[in-house]
Amino acid sequence: MHKTKILGTGMFVPKKVMTNNDLAEVVETNDEWIYERTGIRQRHICSNEGGEFPSDMAYNATLDALKDANLEPEDLDMILFASVTPDMKLPNSASILQTKLGIKNQCACLDIAAACSGFVYGVNMADTMIKTGLMKNVLVVGSEMLSQEVDWKDRRICILFGDGCGVAVVGRSEDESSDGPEILASCLGADGSGKEFFQQTVGGAVQPLTPDIIINREHFMQMKGTEMFKVATRTLAKNAKKVLAMAEMTLDDVDWIVPHQANIRIIETTAKMLGAPMEKVIVNIDKYANTSAATVPMAFHEAIKDGRIKRGDIVLFDAFGAGLTHGATLLRY
Ligand SMILES: CC(C)(COP(=O)(O)OP(=O)(O)OC[C@H]1O[C@@H](n2cnc3c(N)ncnc32)[C@H](O)[C@@H]1OP(=O)(O)O)[C@@H](O)C(=O)NCCC(=O)NCCS
Questions:
Q1: Mean pLDDT of 149-173
Q2: What is the CATH number of the domain that holds 326?
Q3: Are residues 57 and 129 in the same domain?
Q4: What lines the ligand 1 site, CB under 6 Å?
Q5: Which of 40, 72, 163, 321 has a Cα-to-Cα distance from 220 of 20 to 30 A?
Q6: Are residues 251 and 124 located together in one domain of the fold?
Q7: Lowest pLDDT segment from 29-38, 175-184, 249-258, 313-322
Q8: Are 20 and 169 contained in the same domain?
Q9: In the predicted structure, residue 72 carries a pLDDT above the cut 90
């Protein structure tokens, strides 16, 4: 069995920023309500004119991550592309990204549809495949253009989401010392019985898009916020404890928690349930809102680049999302 580690990270957000005040011109809301209930001040929004679609954002973020990892695109054995907003239905976004990166090695390309847990699912899958020797370097992407999927007339949902991308190159760790960088433990799960808490039921095989559906605005994401809130906090706390137990560690051993950025109150409530001080928690929801699969890698990347997360630190990824999917990863960076 090989050891696995994060070799490099990158992120990209579209140029256009939409503040809460900008939103207040579109729906009946205000900065104070949004910030108090969610911790969000602004979000980045992709241009419809191109150059900022999910695979484009991933391309830009990947160039930085590969540089960080000291690798070339050809060194990748697989691309795992987590997104609920792929460029198109076919081909998958991972293959589109492979072409954009100019990769000729026919590396495996797979999209992951696990909503906001997608990146953590990808890291877990990459970890497993590298540990067994099947793959050496796997690019894990979380890239979302949620601005296309929210109803900009529904103030309950459009305030919550933004666009962006975060990536990580996961690879073999050659450092055999007991305190070297390593993915220590991970867990994944899902509870399909909560599917109606967060869903987008049209546009697939069961309910193809019709003009009536579009006129009635039934094709957008729909969420039961209060129900999501309760399940999220319970699940995040449970999974954090689970991976800590797997690695025979306690919260005192953890330097940084990188949670899915859905709502500051979910993050704070989970931290309280775990007994973790907020100083250990990476938060950037104020700048980017909920970017689904991209929140964890974006927050992780930012905290590395600004010097908070350093090599050797123990880091916990903790995510949940529609499905309801969930997952956590514990690693020594
Ligand atoms: C969505 C969320 C912020 C709503 O907060 P809340 O405190 O539950 O608010 P409610 O939905 O109960 O609404 C309270 C009032 O504010 C109003 N309101 C809703 N959205 C508003 C907005 N954007 N601006 C102003 N008022 C708003 C409601 O109409 C309601 O008014 P009423 O009492 O007159 O009916 C919160 O439930 C949440 O964050 N849930 C989790 C969402 C989430 O994380 N999803 C995960 C995705 S992975």
A1: 96
A2: 3.40.47.10
A3: yes
A4: 29, 33-34, 37-38, 116, 155-156, 159, 198, 223, 225-226, 228-229, 232, 262-263, 266, 290, 321
A5: 40
A6: no
A7: 175-184
A8: yes
A9: yes
Q: What are phi and psi of 206, to 5 degrees?
A: -70, -40
- The residue whose CA has the least distance to atom 24 of ligand 1 is 29
Amino acid, res. 75: D
**pLDDT average, residue stretch 150-175:** 95
Task: Give the whole-angstrom CA distance, residue 82 versus residue 151.
Answer: 22
Active site residues: 116, 260, 290
User: Do residues 50 and 123 both lie within one domain?
Assistant: yes
Does 161 share its domain with 257?
no
Q: How far is the CA of 282 from the centre of ligand 1 (A)?
A: 23
- The number of folded domains in the chain is 2
Give the global pTM: 0.96
Structural domain boundaries, residue 15:
3-173
Please indicate, yes or no, whether residues 104 and 191 belong to a single structural domain of this protein.
no
Least trusted range by pLDDT, from 69-83, 91-105, 154-168, 216-230: 216-230
Residue nearest atom 29 in ligand 1 by C-alpha distance: 156
Whole-number Å distance between alpha carbons of 77 and 98: 11
Instruction: Tell me the CA–centroid distance for residue 224 and ligand 1, in Å.
Output: 9
Quote the ligand 1 centre to 177 CA distance (angstroms): 49
The token duo for 139 is 């690019």
Residue 208 in tokens: 């193809």
Task: Measure the CA–CA gap between 124 and 96, rounded to whole angstroms.
Answer: 22
Query: Which residue's alpha carbon is at the smallest distance from atom 23 of ligand 1?
Result: 155
Q: In the prediction, which pLDDT does 178 show?
A: 85
- Using pLDDT thresholds of 50, 70 and 90, give the confidence band for residue 49: confident
Q: At what angle do helices 225-246 and 264-274 cross, to 10 degrees?
A: 40
Q: pLDDT at position 320, please?
A: 97
CA of 90 to the centre of ligand 1 (A): 35
Alpha-carbon span 113 to 83, nearest angstrom: 6
